Amino acid sequence: MVQRLLEPGQIESLDHTSIPRLLLPQARSLFMARAARLRQLANNDIKGIPVAEAMQGYLQLMAAVVDAQAAVAAALPPETFSLPPAADIKLSIDHNMPPLPVNGARPPEWRTVFAALLDHLAASIKDQPQIDAVLAELRALDVAQLEGCADAVLAELTEGVHPLHAPFVAAALQVMWTKRAEQLDSPRVQPLVTNTLCPVCGSHPVASVIRIGGQSQGYRYLQCSCCASEWHMVRVKCSCCEHTSKIAYQSLETNEDKLPVEDAVEDKNAKPNKANDPSKVARAETCDDCKTYRKIFNQEHDFHVEPLADDLASLTLDVLVSEAGYARASGNPLLWFNAA
Ligand SMILES: [Zn+2]
Ligand SMILES: [Zn+2]
């Protein structure tokens, strides 16, 4: 009713002040929550995301990797994660370019992060000769090989990086980018021309999450696969091609052919109909225009959803949706394409 009294320009400005467009990460708490979630998933404790036994060991290993990310994020001196000069950041933002782009030159300090990550892992993983062998291989990479791996990981190329090495390289890059992203001034960062890439670093999102609480109530965010920034995108919209007309949702328990009422509106005053419904925790948002999908995790139905961890653990849903003819819109950094 109020909005009818406003001119279009005013509605726009109202919109911009009421929806937090960008949620920047807090590295340490992000990684700690993610590691805890991975362990719960590995233990099959999460209703709505059943995990096959074959996947449980891998999730435990990735939990150890994420523990190491949290430790390294806290332990390394702050100058490891220095931002580019303020003038460069301003120039990028003024031109709707990501201020911390993943393409182009990388701060060489990421290799310090990588070495520290391997040290933490070596200390925490005992009696696992296979993992020790991978860590030894990673340690033996020279600078040129390591930079080549990072290029491949950030460009999501399957060539140029060994599938068993990729998650560890990706983990170091995530620490580097997340620690820098947390220092930015979120109101100043502008959306990119395309809303399907991270406004902070330009990477693809790993998955969507519907947030609850405070000003983000009921809004959908895309979480960056690299820096973990979350940016707003309206619900029922393809996060790959941005079309809206042929969106559908699939979950493991039900094949929904109709759009649920709660997805049809984005109203911060609307109460979710049924909270804590396990079949709504993890769903795939499919698009018949581009034939891709991304998963969407709903905090209304599980308060502790964590996009990257939940995406990694819900491979069963990938199988279901790919059998229906949809391709993943982008990968999960902790699982390389041909590693499974
Ligand atoms: Zn990002
Ligand atoms: Zn699409």
Fold and architecture overview:
The chain is α+β, with helices and mostly antiparallel strands and 340 residues long. It has two domains: 18-181, FdhE-like domain (FdhE-like fold, Alpha-Beta Complex), CATH 3.90.1670; 190-339, FdhE-like domain (FdhE-like fold, Alpha-Beta Complex). Helices cover 39% and strands 11% of the residues. The chain contains eleven helices and eight strands. Strands 1, 2, 3, 4, 5, 6, 7 and 8 form an eight-stranded mixed sheet that branches. A hairpin with a 5-residue loop joins strand 3 (220-224) and strand 4. The termini are far apart. Residues 1-6 and 254-258 have low confidence and may be disordered. Residues 198, 200-201, 203, 224, 226-227, 229 line the site of one zinc ion. Necessary for formate dehydrogenase activity. It is found in: Cytoplasm.
State the total count of DSSP E strands.
Answer: 8
In the predicted model, the low-confidence regions spanning at least 5 consecutive residues are 1-6, 254-258
Residue-averaged pLDDT: 89
- Into which percent range does the helicity of residues fall? 25-40%
Q: Could you tell me which ligands this complex binds, including any ions or cofactors?
A: zinc ion
* Rg of Cα set: 20 Å
The percentage of residues in β strands lies in 5-15%
- The ordered H/E elements are HEHHHHHHHEEEEHEEHHE
Structural class from helices and strands? Answer: alpha+beta
CATH architecture of the largest domain: Alpha-Beta Complex
- What is the CATH topology classification name of the largest domain? FdhE-like fold
- The dominant shape is globular
Main sheet specs: 8 strands, mixed
Task: Give the total of domains.
Answer: 2
- Using the coordinates above, name the CATH class of the largest domain: Alpha Beta
Q: So how many helices?
A: 11
